[in-house]
Amino acid sequence: MTEVRLHESIRQLAERIRTGELSPVHLVESCFQAIERYDPHLNSFITLFREKSLEEAERASVEIQQDIHRGPLHGIPIALKDLIYVAGTRTTCGSRILSEYYPTFDATVTTRLKQAGAILIGKTNLHEFAFGVTTENPHFGTTPNPWDSTRIAGGSSGGSSVAVIAGFCAGALGTDTGGSVRIPSALCGNVGLKPTFGRISVYGVMELAQSLDCVGPMCRYVEDVALMMDVLAGYDPRDVHSQDQPTADYTDGLDPSVHGWRVGVPKQHFFSNLHPGVRSAVHEAIHVLETLGMEIAALDLPCATDAHEATLPILMAEASDFHQEYLANHREDYGADVREMLVAGQSLSALDYVRAVRTREMAQCTFTGAFEQMDLIVTPTIPIPAPPRSDADGSVESESNRLRPLLTQNTRVFNLLGLPAISVPCGFTQDSLPVGLQIVGPWWSEKKLLQVAYAYQQATPWHTRWPRLPPDTSAVTGTGV
């Protein structure tokens, strides 16, 4: 049997599939073997599509033998966060309320992945209703950090990050309303992209906050994120927030010279409260960008803290509005922290919301001006490494939940403004916990973000490190499964 190295990139796997060296069936079977071995410890999946995905892998194998190639994702195993609809399959949203909900149609992103030949292997664990940053789920269990199981994986897309970095799939989709793709990506050591608001359709994705929600790809390698963007990005008339903006070929010209590109390092807000290990790793990452020929300059963003604070009332008000009926009829079926946040959101006034929207408008003007000076902005993705879990206390006042403002300090501003942002691994703390570098660009600049992230990843070794998983490490160290 051909060895399957689950740490290989989508590009590498696709080439092996194209040449007949690797069968999609063998690849998918290997993923399930790894999941069986390690996921009882990591709890990254809620639902697996074993039978259906093997059928699709058989179909892909036949198509490829007949010289029918649907692109680089043909035959590649991908996981979906469990609030993205797949027709006829359970979509729990990590909740008791929807534990037996079976949508009748596919999300647009699901359809696009299927059309590209991707093999959907299952639905990943998340913070309940995507309203949290820890993936300590009272209904489906906690997804721990694969580098240290006593710590959180981050959220709300924690299951997707863990499935990727553990080698259970070649890529995954998450959602990002206040940082929920980038936070677990930074804490677990994978690449995660939040696109411009309206770039990827959210039709068929369970809503949290309608003016903030985004779907984003999560992979081990920047090029893989670009490959997924080639499939996912584009206008969808069924999504009222989708924008009919030109899309790029995100993998074409991924490695240009970045010499002379201007990078802003914010003076305010984003470098506050830094853990020493995060500070060291991020400053070294900025130095690497400088050695690549990028021009680094301090950037004045006096509105950043106000923008960060304005995001929460918008998120809470919109989430509480969406959950109004569920909360009225199923109040006790929510986990404590999510219920408390939704109830608090109901007490917000119209004045609170209007003030937050005005802050958003003023911040958009400030950032528009900033991008007239700079091509990109860089910050730490998160000021701290993964904090300890607090499963015993599920309330908003639990230790991990009290860190919510800190964990979202550098991420949710860009949800408020609809700007694209990518987190790429940039080092480890002394405790061997991953650190993420966040690269942010102007609206619709995903290709430029990917180019810089790719140049950085090619110049650094962090994407070559893997967590050691009990009971052994064969699935993530290249010895095969």
Structure at a glance:
The chain is an alpha/beta fold and 481 residues long.
Radius of gyration: 21 Å
Structural class comes to alpha/beta
| CATH architecture heading | Alpha-Beta Complex
The number of distinct β-strands equals 15
CATH homologous superfamily grouping: Amidase signature (AS) domain
Helix coverage percent: 25-40%
- Distance N to C terminus: 10 Å
Strand order in the sheet with the most strands: 1-3-2-8-10-9-14-15-13-11-12
Query: How much strand content do the residues show?
Result: 5-15%
Largest sheet: 11 strands, mixed
CATH C-level class is Alpha Beta
Mean pLDDT: 94
What would you say this structure looks like, in words?
This protein is of the alpha/beta class. The chain has a single domain (10-477), classed as Amidase signature (AS) domain (Amidase signature (AS) enzymes, Alpha-Beta Complex), CATH 3.90.1300. Helices cover 39% and strands 15% of the residues. It contains 17 helices and 15 strands. The strands form three sheets. An eleven-stranded mixed β-sheet has the order 1-3-2-8-10-9-14-15-13-11-12, sandwiched between helices. Helix 5 packs parallel to helix 6 and helix 9 crosses helix 10 (324-330).
